[in-house]
Amino acid sequence: MAKKVIKAKLNQKKAKSAKEAELDIIDLIMNDHKPLKELIETMKDEEAEYEEKKAAFDQFGPLLKAHAYPEEQTWYVAMKEDDDMIVEGLEGDVEHGLADQLCEELKREEDEDMFMAKVKVLAELVEHHIEEEEEDMLPDYRENSTAEERMELAAQYLQFQEEIEERGSEDAPKEASPKARKADRRLQGEERRRH
Ligand SMILES: [Fe+2]
Ligand SMILES: [Fe+2]
Fold first, then answer.
1. Burial label, 28 (beta-carbon count in 10 A; 0-12, 13-18, 19+)
2. pLDDT at position 177, please?
3. Residue 109 φ/ψ region, left for φ over 0, alpha for ψ in the -120 to 50 degree band, beta for the rest
4. Rounded to whole angstroms, how far apart are CA atoms 115 and 173?
5. Position 5 pLDDT exceeds 50
6. At 26, which helix (H) or strand (E)?
7. Contact, 100 vs 106, CB < 8 A?
8. 134 C-alpha to center of ligand 2: Å?
9. Cα dihedral sign for 73, 82, 92, 14?
10. Mean pLDDT of all residues in 53-67
11. CA distance 53 to 44
12. Are 129 and 99 in contact (CB under 8 A)?
C-alpha cells in the first residue's frame, strides 16, 4: 500500500514535470508510433522467417499495450467529448479492440502457419490505424484543441503509461522469475505442514 502511495506521488511529480516541460500529447503519440512502425515492417515482411516475426511480435505486444491504453484514456476520450470528432474516437476504440484481440490470439497461437497469417493481419491493421491517426485524426484534433488542453492530456498520458508499465512489471516476475517460483513452492510447503 505504502509503495503504491509513493508511486502515485512520483507519478504526480512526473505528470507535473511533463506539464512544466510543455509536452504536447501529439508529440508523445507520434513518438510512440515510431518503434511500432519499425516492428510492423518485420511483421508484414513476406521474406521474414517465423522466428524473426515471433521476436518482433514479442516486442510489439507490450509496446502496443503501453501506447494504446493511455491513448484511449486521454486523446480518445477528448475526441469523444467533441461532437465533430466522436466517430473518429469510436473508430479508434474499435480498431484498438480488434488489435488487442489478435494480440491475445497470437500469444497463444501454436501453429506456425496460423501465426504467420495472424501476425500479418495484425501488422496491416495497426499500420493502417497509425496512418489514419497521423494523417487525419491528429491533424483534426490539433485544429480542434488548444495547446493547454494538449499539455494537460500529455501529463495524463504519461501517468497512464506509468501505470501500465507498473502493472506489467508486477505481472511478469511472478510467472517468469525462478526466485518467485521458489518462494511460491516454499509457501505451499508451509501451507501443507500447517494442515
Ligand atoms: Fe490508436
Ligand atoms: Fe496511436
1. buried
2. 39
3. beta
4. 26
5. no
6. helix 25-44
7. no
8. 8
9. negative
10. 97
11. 8
12. yes
The string of DSSP codes covering 98-136 is HHHHHHHHHHH---HHHHHHHHHHHHHHHHHHHHHIIII
Question: From the CA of 131, how far away is ligand 2's center (Å)?
Answer: 9
Indicate if the pLDDT at residue 59 is higher than 60: yes
Distance 110 CA to ligand 1 centre (A): 28
Nearest ligand to the CA atom of 33: 2
Domain ranges in the chain are 25-166
- CA 26 to the chain's CA centroid: 16
25-166: CATH, from 1.20.120.1760, 1.20.120.520, 3.30.70.260, 1.10.10.60: 1.20.120.520
Ramachandran region, residue 179 (left: φ > 0; alpha: ψ -120 to 50; beta: rest): alpha
- Say how many Å lie between the CA of residue 68 and the centre of ligand 1: 6
Decide if 125 contacts 102 (C-beta within 8 A): yes
14 band by pLDDT with thresholds 50, 70 and 90:
low
Alpha helices in 45-177 (DSSP H): 50-71, 77-80, 86-108, 112-132, 138-143, 147-176
Residue owning grid cell 485524426: 137
